Every structure is written in structure tokens, then in C-alpha cells.
């Protein structure tokens, strides 16, 4: 980073003194190097280019496929053969997920009978909670249960 800072200010000094032909290769090198940090962004700006151009990535369509998969999974959950007790839990978990209250939806989903979940939607032990987190688009715990809250089974009422 220190080297990038020195190179950037050298190029700026060259540019300010009218020696653009010498400054341009330095700016180009800084702008193309991912490890120059903020000086790379400054160099992009000094070249007259859009500073945050790297955010303008075109879609390759994978988000559409993810949305379609999510719709299929929701349909599978809604149409599954849940018992009466589990059906109400699943409906609550779905509403909480759609409201964006993912951690509470996960707590609800943990209450679903594991055998019923495996039979209804094919998930393994504890998979219903991860599935609801995935469907909410919150992937921080999609593969492993986060440890930031106690399991609903450990709470005594």
C-alpha cells in the first residue's frame, strides 16, 4: 500500500507539471492492480474513468435461476404432507421468513419434527431450519446453524 501511495502521488505530480505521457502509464498500472487499495480508485478517477466501474457487472442469469429454485422449494414446502402441528409451525416460519425476521423463522423451523421434515421435504436432521434461512436469502447460516441464539429446545417455559 505504501508503494501504491508513492506511485500515485508521483503520477499526480507528473500530471500537475504537464507531463501526462509519463503519468498515464503509472495511473494505468495502479488502476489495474487490485492490491493498490484506495490509490487504485484515485488512479481510475485521475484517468477520467468511472471510479466504481467494477460494480457494473452484467448479469449472467444465475440470479433468475436462483429465484426459480426458491419458488420451487417454497411450492414443495407448501404442498408437503405436514401433520397439523407441524403445518402451523411451517406456516409461521414462512410468514416470518417473508417478513425478513429470519432468526425467528429458524427458531420456528427447528420446532418441526425431524422425521416429519425428512418425510415431507427430504431434509436431514435439522435441515428445515437451514432451508428456511436459505429461502430467506440469508446464507450466513445456510450450511451451519449459527450459535448466536439458544436452541428452542433448551428454553424452559
Structure description:
With 157 residues, the protein is mostly helical. The chain has 8 helices and no strands. It has helices at residues 2-16, 20-31, 38-46, 62-79, 84-99, 102-110, 114-121, 127-135. Helix 1 runs parallel beside helix 3 (38-46), helix 2 packs across helix 3 (38-46) and helix 5 (84-99) runs antiparallel to helix 6. The longest helix is centred in the middle third of the chain and has 18 residues, at 62-79. The chain starts with a helix and ends in a 22-residue tail after the last helix.
**Helix content class:** 55-70%
Total number of helical segments?
8
Q: State the separation between the terminal residues, measured CA to CA.
A: 56 Å
Series of secondary-structure elements, N-terminal to C-terminal:
HHHHHHHH
- Give the overall form: rod-shaped
Given helix and strand content, the structural type is mainly alpha
**Major sheet description:** none
Mean pLDDT: 77
Proportion of beta-strand residues: under 5%
Number of strands: 0
Gyration radius from CA atoms, angstroms? 26 Å
Note poorly predicted spans. 141-147
Summarize the structure.
This protein is mainly α and 157 residues long.
Question: How are the SSEs ordered, and which strands pair?
Answer:
Elements: H1 2-16, H2 20-31, H3 38-46, H4 62-79, H5 84-99, H6 102-110, H7 114-121, H8 127-135
Helix pairs in contact: 1-2, 1-3, 2-3, 5-6, 6-8
